[in-house]
């Protein structure tokens, strides 16, 4: 556990300095090639858990310190250990002892004593410390204040449940490849492999416990893919038919590209501006046995890559704040700044404008974000419709989208997404 606490503490520190959690963890694991798969998994769980509840843990820690902590590693080690004591199954004495040993490695004479005292005081005073946070929403929900304020303003009836949904442990959800099977049949295969699960619709299945993909029946043969249920609405709403020309304009890593191709035999151009991420699209398509014309390019400047033939369907799954998928990407809560919203909204506006002229008359463009902020969603589309007289907004099929003007609120079964289906008239 000591190694995992140490690595998690380093990862937490680097994320709080502005770095992406999955990149940070990958780099740390490369630097420690001898740790076991179990130590990797525990390090990852501790880093994710600590960041999920970061501001609550920080508020608890501040109550336990008599003066500010100047040693960053000890600070982050205490956050990880408090996470373990407050949320994890590990035994309290083991957590404290291992943290003290990890602190000793810093060779600071005061570190061992401080870590021991802070963690034991937490165990003794926990109820009183927690009670003092009852009126502190940043500590209660573990989000930045600006984020809480924005959701309160934009979702007066749902803000608290949305914040809580973002703190849940995300489920592992599968998309069954319709070319091979459906949810009912695949469920039977999962049961035979001792993997309990439930069907969410004809293609989507939520597993009771996350497992390595190698344990999924037929995964290497493309019988199923890992994809949040909310993301699976995209290909269904796009409604591409056999023979159509389809552009997936921000496609990497190709989750939605694969789904569109599973549903219909279309001529697919899958484009992204990131060459490395495009390699993952190719790998995903290879596994599914599907084909697309992969193009590296900028969706906002199509003249550089477009062949001049209009598309019947365009999927614009644009870059966004990702505020709807924080339960999977816990670092986003601490990496985003409020001013990022306007910057993303401008990037999305330019992409949407750039893609619109590629759409055939009568064709449909599905605009998608994994954000819950109105500036990137409803406001973006309202502004687009005002500036584009040949665009009209079509109704969406899925009930959950219809009832919220295209906004899928994050919940137990899916992340938060926004969908708008536009037709060129
Ligand atoms: C939300 S992700 C797409 C996820 C993907 N549709 C899927 O379902 O797997 C957004 C993608 O847009 C790409 N991107 C960002 N700016 C772009 C631009 N100007 N032109 C094309 N792609 C862009 C990013 O590299 C990223 O892969």
Automatic annotation (TrEMBL):
Specifically methylates the cytosine at position 967 (m5C967) of 16S rRNA. Signal peptide: none annotated. It is found in: Cytoplasm. Its EC number is 2.1.1.176. Belongs to the class I-like SAM-binding methyltransferase superfamily. RsmB/NOP family. This is 16S rRNA (cytosine(967)-C(5))-methyltransferase. It is an enzyme of class 2 (transferase). Keywords: Cytoplasm, Methyltransferase, RNA-binding, rRNA processing, S-adenosyl-L-methionine, Transferase. It holds the Pfam family Methyltr_RsmB-F. It catalyses: cytidine(967) in 16S rRNA + S-adenosyl-L-methionine = 5-methylcytidine(967) in 16S rRNA + S-adenosyl-L-homocysteine + H(+). One of its GO terms (biological process) is methylation. One of its GO terms (molecular function) is methyltransferase activity. Residues 162-425 form the SAM-dependent MTase RsmB/NOP-type domain. The active site is at 370 (nucleophile). It comes from the Bacteria. Its main location: cytoplasm. InterPro entries: MeTrfase_RsmB-F_NOP2_cat, MeTrfase_RsmB-F_NOP2_dom, NusB-like_sf, NusB_RsmB_TIM44, RCMT, rRNA_ssu_MeTfrase_B, RsmB-like_ferredoxin, SAM-dependent_MTases_sf. S-adenosyl-L-methionine binds at residues 250-256, 272, 298, 317.
């Amino acid at each position: 556990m000591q190694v995992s606490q140490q690595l998690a503490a380093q990862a937490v520190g680097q994320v709080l300095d502005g770095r992406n959690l999955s990149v940070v963890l990958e780099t740390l694991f490369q630097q420690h090639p001898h740790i076991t798969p179990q130590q990797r998994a525990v390090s990852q769980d501790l880093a994710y858990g600590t960041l999920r509840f970061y501001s609550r843990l920080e508020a608890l820690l501040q109550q336990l310190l008599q003066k500010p902590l100047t040693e960053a590693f000890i600070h982050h080690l205490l956050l990880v250990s408090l996470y373990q004591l407050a949320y994890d199954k590990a035994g309290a004495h083991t957590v404290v002892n291992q943290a003290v040993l990890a602190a000793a490695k810093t060779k600071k004479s005061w570190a061992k004593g401080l870590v021991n005292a802070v963690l034991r005081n937490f165990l003794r005073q926990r109820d009183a410390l927690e009670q003092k946070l009852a009126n502190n929403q940043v500590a209660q929900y573990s989000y930045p204040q600006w984020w809480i304020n924005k959701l309160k303003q934009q979702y007066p009836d749902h803000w608290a449940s949305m914040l809580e949904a973002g703190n849940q442990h995300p489920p592992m959800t599968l998309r069954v490849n319709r070319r091979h099977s459906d949810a009912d049949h695949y469920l039977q295969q999962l049961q035979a492999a001792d993997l309990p699960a439930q069907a969410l619709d004809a293609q989507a299945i939520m597993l009771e416990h996350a497992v390595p993909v190698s344990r999924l029946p037929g995964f290497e043969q493309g019988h199923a893919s890992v994809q949040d249920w909310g993301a699976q609405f995209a290909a269904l709403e796009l409604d591409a038919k056999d023979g159509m020309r389809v552009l997936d304009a921000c496609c990497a890593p190709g989750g939605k590209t694969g789904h569109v191709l599973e549903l219909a035999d279309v001529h697919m151009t899958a484009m992204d501006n990131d060459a490395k991420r495009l390699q993952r699209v190719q790998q995903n398509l290879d596994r599914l046995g599907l084909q697309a014309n992969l193009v590296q390019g900028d969706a906002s400047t199509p003249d550089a890559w477009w062949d001049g033939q209009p598309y019947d369907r365009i999927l614009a799954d644009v870059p966004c704040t990702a505020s709807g998928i924080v339960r999977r990407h816990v670092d986003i809560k601490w990496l985003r700044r409020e001013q990022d919203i306007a910057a993303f909204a401008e990037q999305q506006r330019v992409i949407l404008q750039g893609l619109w002229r590629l759409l055939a008359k009568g064709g449909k463009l599905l605009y998608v974000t994994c954000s819950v902020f109105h500036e990137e969603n409803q406001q973006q589309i309202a502004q687009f419709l005002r500036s584009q007289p040949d665009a009209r907004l079509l109704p969406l099929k899925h009930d959950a989208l219809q009832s919220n003007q295209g906004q899928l609120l994050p919940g137990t079964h899916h992340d938060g997404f926004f969908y708008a289906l536009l037709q060129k008239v």
